[in-house]
């Protein structure tokens, strides 16, 4: 997903929000979240001077989490208000969608984020950081509708498969004994694309150092190298990092229509071939009549002989004709 504009920065996993309501308890290769978390190593953050620390915590970072998977992708955006059923909440006056007033960090890689948060909680109250890939807004928009469906503003996430009746709820605040942060009471009514306008590099609150290629951009982080991009692609293909991706209703309808048409025409073709196989060829019928003794009744169609019937018996080379007049 990332192009040249992506950059690597430092964030606390506890500052990053989940973009989905539910995640699976394991990766596609069979590794569980617990096993993956156990492979996350911890090192001294002072040894890392290459990246800018954009964490919202007032306390300085002390530890760096080194994960066995590629760095997670994050972006800053306004979260859409949703009810308990997942439907967007609308402004009663304008009928537009409601969004949070403040922007927050959200992750596209929710299972990996859960592993990082658990590793950070294990070192609490020490402040941990991790390397993340900041995705620009113009690239993040392409995955907005397909990926983001959180109903808790990304502060908690359900861990379990879809058929699990009682999935576990992960909350790092509950894990460290802190009270849950209440959701915002009021939001901002706007069209879906408006929240991305004006968030150019270097704008206040955008979390970016400067324009692409400018001094701020060069000093605040490192562009994603070709090696890291290849590593991310290999990991994503192996683990199907789209997690709980949901196709849009239009795609589902078109897929069902195409499936119906394929089944329908397949059945029609099968019936046609079956009937053709069951019906004997015309040549075979003629051969049967010519090589066997077959009684045939002929109705003379001449107007003067409508009352006459002839019975013909054909047997090999001998032919005898008997006619009766009625």
From TrEMBL:
Composition bias type Gly residues, residue spans: 204-216
Protein name according to UniProt: Uncharacterized protein
Chain residue ranges for the region called Disordered: 199-246
Listed Basic and acidic residues bias regions: 227-241
Species: Polarella glacialis (Dinoflagellate)
């Amino acid at each position: 997903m990332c192009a040249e504009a992506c950059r690597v920065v430092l964030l606390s996993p506890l500052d990053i929000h989940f973009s989905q309501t539910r995640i699976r308890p394991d990766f596609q290769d069979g590794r569980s979240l617990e096993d993956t978390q156990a492979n996350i190593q911890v090192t001294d953050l002072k040894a890392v001077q290459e990246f800018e620390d954009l964490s919202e915590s007032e306390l300085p970072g002390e530890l760096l989490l080194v994960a066995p998977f590629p760095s997670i992708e994050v972006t800053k955006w306004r979260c859409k208000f949703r009810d308990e059923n997942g439907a967007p909440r609308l402004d009663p006056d304008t009928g537009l969608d409601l969004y949070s007033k403040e922007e927050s960090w959200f992750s596209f890689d929710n299972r990996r984020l859960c592993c990082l948060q658990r590793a950070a909680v294990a070192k609490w109250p020490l402040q941990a950081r991790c390397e993340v890939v900041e995705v620009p807004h113009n690239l993040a928009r392409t995955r907005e509708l397909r990926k983001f469906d959180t109903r808790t503003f990304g502060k908690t996430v359900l861990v379990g498969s879809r058929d699990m009746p009682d999935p576990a709820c992960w909350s790092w605040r509950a894990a460290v004994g802190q009270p849950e942060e209440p959701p915002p009471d009021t939001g901002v009514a706007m069209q879906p694309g408006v929240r991305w306008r004006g968030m150019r590099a270097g704008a206040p609150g955008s979390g970016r150092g400067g324009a692409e290629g400018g001094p701020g951009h060069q000093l605040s982080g490192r562009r994603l190298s070709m090696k890291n991009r290849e590593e991310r692609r290999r990991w994503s293909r192996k683990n199907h990092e789209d997690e709980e991706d949901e196709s849009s209703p239009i795609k589902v309808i078109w897929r069902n229509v195409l499936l119906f048409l394929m089944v329908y025409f397949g059945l029609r073709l099968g019936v046609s071939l079956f009937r053709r196989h069951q019906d004997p060829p015309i040549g075979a019928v003629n051969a049967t009549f010519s090589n066997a003794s077959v009684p045939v009744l002929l109705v003379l169609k001449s107007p003067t002989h409508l009352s006459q019937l002839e019975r013909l018996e054909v047997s090999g080379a001998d032919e005898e004709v008997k006619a009766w007049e009625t």
